[in-house]
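Thread amino acids onto this structure.
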């Protein structure tokens, strides 16, 4: 993948990791614009390449009464407006083949959810849009298995693909990150560490996923130390009222401090890695 081929991306020569960040789901225009503006301001100051993330719909909820979205085209138009107003690339996830063509009209990067990383038709449909494709590693998949998912995109004549590590199931209600997998997956494609979903506690009896957001910085520092290409995180100005995945989100007013620390660590790692 060539980061410079993603429309409107900035600071690609800074030596920093790239950042994929935003709310879990698009809940409305005002919240999306507020979050995007804050992240863009921080990333411009720190010279971090930034891609705004927001799900236009949530198709993998535990309960039937869980929030799934505000309407597909309404949410996608908000993502389009974020990209236009703040001049940043945008990302959303897709769940079925028809989503690929629809979402590609509005966003720059299509994300394949972890549960769907083996779905051949979905990967091929995404690849054929010509957009950059991010594939989340299934919680049930080994790092080596991701080469096959990547190859489905490459063999569909699309070289713009990256992998996102989001933890591996540990028992029924916890996730662990095996950092040995990051350099392995980097042999197949640039690799991003999802530092908020890696701290999920799924399969709670309530049907609402839990999390350990107090460990976000710990996971993020470890990822930078081992040389991830990018960081993925979900953030909200008030995670307690977020309509999806609030339990593992980073509070927006903590983002600046975290990114300052991570950019300092990245600079040190770059220095250590010089030949």
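Threaded sequence (275 positions):
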């Amino acid at each position: 993948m060539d980061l410079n081929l993603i429309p409107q991306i900035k600071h690609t020569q800074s030596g920093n990791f790239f950042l994929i960040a935003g709310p879990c789901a698009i809940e409305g225009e005002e919240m999306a614009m507020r979050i995007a503006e804050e992240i863009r301001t921080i990333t411009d100051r720190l010279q971090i390449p930034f891609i705004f993330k927001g799900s236009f719909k949530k198709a993998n909820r535990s309960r039937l009464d869980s929030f799934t979205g505000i309407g597909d085209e309404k949410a996608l138009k908000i993502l389009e407006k974020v990209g236009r107003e703040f001049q940043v690339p945008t990302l959303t996830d897709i769940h079925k083949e028809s989503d690929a063509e629809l979402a590609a009209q509005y966003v720059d990067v299509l994300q394949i959810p972890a549960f769907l990383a083996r779905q051949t038709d979905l990967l091929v449909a995404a690849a054929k849009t010509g957009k950059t494709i991010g594939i989340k590693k299934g919680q049930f998949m080994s790092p080596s298995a991701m080469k096959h998912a990547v190859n489905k995109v490459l063999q569909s004549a699309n070289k713009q693909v990256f992998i996102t590590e989001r933890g591996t199931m540990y028992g029924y209600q916890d996730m662990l990150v095996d950092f040995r997998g990051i350099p392995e997956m980097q042999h197949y494609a640039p690799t991003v560490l999802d530092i908020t979903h890696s701290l999920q506690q799924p399969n709670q009896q309530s049907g609402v996923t839990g999390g350990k957001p107090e460990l976000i910085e710990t996971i993020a520092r470890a990822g930078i130390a081992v040389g991830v290409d990018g960081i993925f995180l979900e953030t909200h100005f008030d995670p307690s009222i977020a309509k999806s995945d609030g339990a593992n989100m980073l509070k927006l007013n903590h983002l600046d401090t975290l990114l300052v620390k991570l950019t300092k660590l990245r600079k040190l790692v770059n220095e250590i890695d010089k030949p």
